[in-house]
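Go through the following before class.
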Amino acid sequence: MNLKLVLLGIVAIAGIMSFLVMSPDDAESDVQITSATSDIMITDGKKHIISLDKIRRGGPPKDGIPSIDDPKFATINDSQFVSDEDIVIGLSINGESKAYPLFILVWHEIVNDVVGGTPVAVTYCPLCYTNQVFDRTLDGTTVEFGTSGKLYNSNLVMYDRLTDSYWSQGLGIAITGELSGDTLDTIPFDMITWGNWKELHQDTLVLTTDTGHIRSYSIDPYGSYYTNPQILFPVDNQDDRIPLKEVIVGFHQDDIFKAYKQSDVESNGIINDVVGDSSILVVSMFAGNSRVFDRMVNDDVLDFTFEDGVILDTNTKSVWNYDGKSISGTLKGEQLSRLSINPGFWFSWISFHPDTLVYGVTP
């Protein structure tokens, strides 16, 4: 690596690290609610659904952490720059599969892409270890998302380049601007190692470091942040039922929210549960990865178990694969509906959903 590249990488790291240690005093607190209708508030003619003083400066300016808007991909044969242990966001839509390494996303946070004909925003907030994939179609129009340079509950605030509305990654909701209160559709994805993703999708493509930006992709600018207990920005709510930075799988149905420790899902392998009116299957066959499916098939609720490393429903003893499809038995050919999840640090989930239930913990 040449000296110029090293220096540019150091400058970029310094910018992000200054973002991590910004004082809470930099919050925008000089606002006043002038009117409110239902859940929409208006301040100086600007719509919003949360108090504006909860949206805080993160450090870098708008687009200071640049989104990737023209992503370049490599095949597995040309993917030597990714190790099997690297964590990726894996996405498969309409037969097309792509992987987005976190060591790239940590520098960009948003990738605007199209997968299987669906315009998507692949997002990652390093401060919260939250990943989410959104359909970036708004009222029939495909839009790009960028980083606003702001945080809400220590979490990434995006903006759309159509209306300049601000969106909370953790909520998937527009929190300020013309589209305040609107919700983005989420798309199921995997948080998984590159080695395991390749095993599942042998025709996958993977995002390359040819991003149009010079960054030190071999270095994570957040260092030990992921493992130390410190939270660097204020959050609305904290809860000690789970360590703050333990990785959980968040799920919600209507107004019911529930969290599953990733370690519990892995140790159980399969969890049959009910959240609100939804009977769900929470399953993990790979370290750090979980999927959630609706257990309802043909108006019957199925119960699942692992037997000799195979997923079976106890109702019919049919065999199911990790994609939620029955591959043998009475129900061969049936497909479970896969549901969206919100993986990330516990402190982030509970900051947005203070009334959440926790699997294995009595309310």
